[in-house]
Design a protein that fits this description.
four-stranded antiparallel beta sheet; 2 domains; three-stranded antiparallel beta sheet; Arc Repressor Mutant, subunit A; 7 strands; about 10% strand; single chain; about 240 residues
Length: about 240
Amino acid sequence: MSDVNLPSDDQHPPIKILSKPQRRVLGVLIEKGITTPEYYPLTLKALTTGCNQKNNRSPLSEYSEDDALRAVDQLREIGLAAVVHTESGRSERYRHYARKRFPFNEAQLAIMTELWLRGRQSVGDLRTRASRMHDIPTLEQLRDELKALQAAGFIQANGPLEVRGIEVDHNLYKPDEGKTLAAGDFSSSRDEADPLPRSTPTTSASESRIASLEQSVAELTAQLSQLSERFEALRRELGASV
């Protein structure tokens, strides 16, 4: 495979804003590159399927392939994505360059990806979801990463990160989206003095199992789509050789 239009850091200004489709497409490229590397880079069809899957996405979307292509072309213009040509030359695939364009370590990349895919969420939920892509064993480690991201202007929170019940979101919204988090009332004791209560297994465990099953279904759907494309390409090659 060969990359087209490789990004260069000195060609592009720092990224401060991403549109909703850009965030969704970038998040999917990062997520699939980590969770299903055998099917990455993604075809346009697989990318669109990933954008519209029902789990780990908020809000849900119904992007067409044209919508996904438009967003990925915009990401290419700012050095966040590139086209990858296969050896056969029959299908274009797409990959991200978030690691080149953002100063994130792997934990921070997983955190930002989840925020791009789902938006505002609690610290506890964020740790569970981001750990699908990179292990974040404790809330304290998560808070350390969030503090670094907040200091760099990449995330926002509705109160001090040490406070129980805090919610966080990314900070790359367009101004007209109105997604600035308002400060909440967090006058209760801080987590260091009063540790977070254990989550009840009934709700969190069930939601985790459901999310895991939905993720598996979405990944199998994407895999089936790519296998179908490979089969069709092989069928055409065999037909041409007869």
